[in-house]
Amino acid sequence: MKATKSISLLLAASLAISIFFTACGSTAEEPDQGNNTPSAVNTGTDGTNSKTVGVMRDITSTELVKEMTIGWNLGDTLDVCQADRDGDGKINEHAEEGEEVDETLWGNVMTTPELFDKLKESGVNAVRIPVTWRDHLDDDDNIKESWMNRVQEVVDYAIDRGLYVIINMHHDGGGDPQFGAWIVEYAQEDYDKFYARYSKMWKQIAERFRDYSDYLIFESMNEVGFDSLSKSDAYALINKINQDFVDIIRASGGNNEKRHLLIAGYWTDIAETCNALYKMPNDTIEDHLILSVHYYTPWEFCIAGSKKTWGTDAEVQLMTDKVNQLNTNFIEKGIPVIIGEYAGGGSSMEHTYFCEYFAKLCHDIGIACFLWDNGWNFNRTTYQWSVSGLMDGLKRATSGEDYEVVKVA
Predict the structure, then answer these.
(1) Phi, psi of 211 (to 5 degrees)
(2) Cα(183)–Cα(169) distance, rounded to whole angstroms?
(3) Burial of 223 (0-12, 13-18, 19+ CB in 10 A)
């Protein structure tokens, strides 16, 4: 979900508009899925896969991203956590005493294999599975086995169906440290303390998924910035974290030595990430890093719900300018880009128009987009798209056809 400088404010807004959101052409040969996807059932006693299960193809991240067409987020699910969602200073989403936080905490149903069957049938070929780990750590920062196993199970549902998958550290980020977020507070106050936890957690995740194919992508973090620091110190810090992330994953062995990695921009904001102070990390392998940014502009339309329409000449130009910024600062310099989250608002017509326009702008220059969905866009019980015309619009946008996007009543 697009962050403000205070996650409490953000979550309060999201509660008020819960009917909306709380948090949008292949050029390479299609791989043999029988050899490229891990089994969801062949696991060892430690929960890890008991055989080598994935193939890392000799392709660049630029080529990989171009294989992605319609992306989708499994939002408000594995990323849920005990949190102050209405901004009153108290945890109002919590597990019952003696129970563990699970993926149903924020109102969604348990994720099923059928969900990914239906998503794929509808046209989705890539899913981002946000994961929050903070409620599933022991006192020594070991990720609880039950949570790691469930994350792997859901990842396998998608991978086994030939879908690209992104996993990350989601609400571990910042904004509500009093309720468990830690990345921002730790990193800016005591980097050694931050690194000890961050590296230990990513080493565990990397080990569990070390043999997965290039259909699995790791993302360094979600919507993190350091606005209490000077601008130069803030950018230096996020650059340092991203560099450490790459180094940790590359040192973890197996397929992770060549895994394609998604690198978080500053607040994942396009304009702030296009600042010259932001630097992509160095890597031991060429063209295996991807920039991650989000798009919720204008906020009043995409999230707050106070604006119901979109599409004036000025609004279209602003969207175009933002995408062009990414093209100039990254795509043209050989750095691929993924929009990890985007979404519109208003009616189904307005939402579809916004998403189709944005997805086409991005697809035309090789950017892959992942629609944010907390259950509003795709019904996880009926497995039907709730927003009329949305998938037709996204299919047109990612078809490679040259056409003008128009608002359809």
Answers:
(1) -100, 10
(2) 9
(3) buried
Query: Which position has the token pair 């620091």?
Result: 229
Question: Is 97 an annotated catalytic residue?
Answer: no
**Residue 118 placed within a domain:** yes
Instruction: Indicate which residue of 103, 272, 341, 356 is catalytic.
Output: 341
Task: With respect to residue 403, please indicate whether it lies within any of the assigned structural domains.
Answer: no
341 flagged as catalytic = yes
Domain assignment present for 1? no
Which pLDDT tens digit goes with each residue over 284-342?
999 999 999 999 999 999 999 999 999 999 999 999 999 999 999 999 999 999 999 99
Spatial distance between the Cα atoms of 184 and 361, rounded to a whole number of angstroms = 33
List beta partners, residue 166: 128, 217
Cα 271 to Cα 48: distance, rounded to the nearest angstrom: 40
Residue 257's domain comprises 7-397
Q: The domain spanning residue 156 has which CATH number?
A: 3.20.20.80
Please state, in angstroms and rounded to a whole number, the distance separating the CA atoms of residues 388 and 33.
Answer: 32
In tens, the pLDDT along 152-206 reads: 999 999 999 999 999 999 999 977 888 899 999 999 999 999 999 999 999 999 9
Give me the catalytic one of 223, 272, 350, 356.
223
Burial status of residue 261 (CB atoms within 10 A of its CB: 0-12, 13-18, 19 or more): buried
Query: Does residue 315 sit within a domain?
Result: yes
- Considering the entire predicted model, what is its pTM? 0.89
Q: Report the number of distinct structural domains present in the chain.
A: 1
